[in-house]
Amino acid sequence: MPEPLIQVQDLHYTYNAGTEREVPALRGIDLEISRGEYVAIVGANGSGKSTLARHFNALLLPTAGRVWVRGMDTQDPRHRQAIRRAVAMVFQNPENQVVATVVEEDVAFGPENLGVPEEELRVRVEWAMEVTGIASLRGRSPYHLSGGQKQRLALAGALAMQPELLVLDEATAMLDPAGRRAVHEIVGRLHAEGIAIVAITQAMEEAAQAGRVIALCAGKVALDGRPQQAFADEEALRSLGLDLPLMARLAQMLRERLPGFPAGVLTPAGMVAALKEQALSRGGRR
Amino acid sequence: MSEFELLRNVAIGQYLPRESVLHRLDPRVKLLGTILLMAALMGQRRPAMLLVGLLLVGGLFLLARAPLGHALRGLRPLLPLFFIVLVLQLFFYPHRQAVAAGSPALWQWGRFVLSGEGMIALAAMLLRMAALALVLTLLTSIADVTGLVHGVEGLLRPFQRLRLPAHEVSMVLVVALRFVPLLTREMERLMKAQAARGADFGRGRGGVIKRVRRTFPLLIPLFITTLRRAEELAVAMEARGYVGGKGRTHLVRLRFRPADLLALGVAAGASVGLFLVNLGPAERAVIDWLRHLLSGP
Amino acid sequence: MSAPQPLIEVRGLDSTYMRGTPLETVALRGVDFTVYPGEMVGVIGPTGSGKSTLLQHLNGLLRPQAGRVRVAGVDLSDRRAGLRSLRLRVALLFQNPEDQLFERYVADDVAFGPLSLSLPLEEVRERVRRAMEAAGLPLQVYRDRLTFSLSGGERRRAALAGVLALDPQVLVLDEPLAGLDPAGRRELVSLLAGWHRREGRAIVWASHSMEEIARLADRVYVLAEGRVVLEGTPRQVFARGDLLAACGLEVPAVTQVLLELAQAGLPVRTDVLSLEEALPVLEALLA
User: What is the pTM assigned to this prediction?
Assistant: First the structure.
């Protein structure tokens, strides 16, 4: 059986450990992420989402417990470059992750760091820019790009490393709806090609699109399952500082009036499909 | 024009994207050529040669297809400095000693004397300042900053064997280039945000302490957000596998072409010439003519 | 009965950023915009549509290059127009306002505005107390709190208190909910709506979030490429899903669902803005 992409065992992490300002952020997390999965991590601010994600690419090392990436222990410095190649990350602020002054040079930054030979560098950079639709911006300065374009640039930079897992740390939080759609569309395509996705998000609607939802509360896993399960209990969600996705709430309201309305509707597409089906079956059409 | 448009006054390199012989040169040659020319100009004492140097730089501007107006605009910020130098040379140069030592007295008014030597030194100083300023303006016209940074890295790379962190140095430059305009934009935003609350940024009233305090609503948040940016950027760089210059490959590979080597040779030759050649006799003739003019009818 | 006098009147406003330089960009073209006392006006538009530029004209940070901006009858083209009274009338809260905090203690930062405008100390104290209350940061609890010890959400509310302390007739908000988690959003919306109702003041709200605008706004302006492309009540504006989509905008999710049902031939109304409004429509469909 192929090893899981990410294995987390009894992970504890404390910021400023050992000092008087120490803040426990993760208090014992066990989980596994398989190849090709699409996982959403949700939780109130301070629940440990980003902290957890940063263990996946060895940006943070456990204060206790262990994390393996493709079987490599993150605490072993010899594996660091390999881990950072396998797990790429896109951060929330489009501005503060672009390094170079020219778009294509920024895309090349990651693979350059990995020592990818020069002919292959060019190939990867071209490919990454094609996939993210920024090839026409190649010679531009990032200063003049919109937020959405900058995030696509960040995605291209991550892709150029040819990762097996792409972590998105609230990557669309600062974008306008058009920018968000563009990023989601690219991420969807990448997932279809087999890249595992971990999306940290505050938008329940985004989480509803994932294959698996993990909800954190005060540094522990409070929920872990398919979106239908995770979003089933509204009270539990509220207590975690979360909410039902909009469509799930509407579905709930409808179920109260019309018992028999299907459960598990979470997305607008799902709602439209369910309504059409129900309308037909109940013969509400002339 | 809004009082908040700070970027208006920050020239992010007055790069003129054109097709010219000079533009096509390897950035390392552009840098080395500039350094050589500047060294020659700084080492040359005689105004005549400096004038030749100035004309040479002017010629380079033509070669770069840069309009003369652009060149002269590069000099404009220096005008106050020129004026100060002029005044200092006129009044504080030891003219009388020079005359006593044999230099011709060009002009006299009571006890005040202008020596030929003093005027030569003044001319040299002004010509040198102008030439240096023009060389730098030329450099920024023919090279965009990204190219220059690649050039710097390229020049430093051979020294990596001697433990010089060439890539780290160029990284510092790149990050600075990337973020200085952002900081300016951030400053503009902060000024607006605080002005919206009624802040009034030091119209110069009150004592020093008061005026310093008045900058806090700008400086403190700017400082904090800048530190935060720096931290986020560092984390992002780490996530993308940055471990310094060792083992890195490069998308942009600088290669010397014959034209580059030729240009470098010409620059070296011109610099040496500028430095060594002495047009002494020509100068003396000019001085004599000036003296003749000023002592007049 | 005569029509109420507008608090803010913008007519034919043009604005160009960095005019006269190679980097110049036209931000606004011929924009007409009105705010009446006590109303909630939503401004939506994609990034780069000129929303922020428009908002910055409302309190005089930017002066009209062409066209007219009048606030409470005072024409802002007149450079002599008193800035001080303007600041006390129209207060602007920028995006990510928590970045502008600088004082050591929260209450001091909230007091910065009134103090800068030379209000008497007693009045400043009272304003700070009321503003912090309105922003959900009661003075008794937060009086001695260090600004930078507050959470992100608390700091945003502290920045809000800072502008509420100006006691404006119009509160202008540039994407006030950006970057907040769902609980934070709910809280801020409720604080703002509460202040709006209690004090009867006008709010201009620029946002990407259609749901809040649909629910709270009395009128909505849609900006695209520096022009007002649509104006009206939320119901009128969100009925034009096609136009909004062309501008890169969205309608509230529930409206979108009904639009798709209608397109599929089902008999449903599409002028629905919230879940509550959608419920009877869908019930009728499925009954």
Answer: 0.87
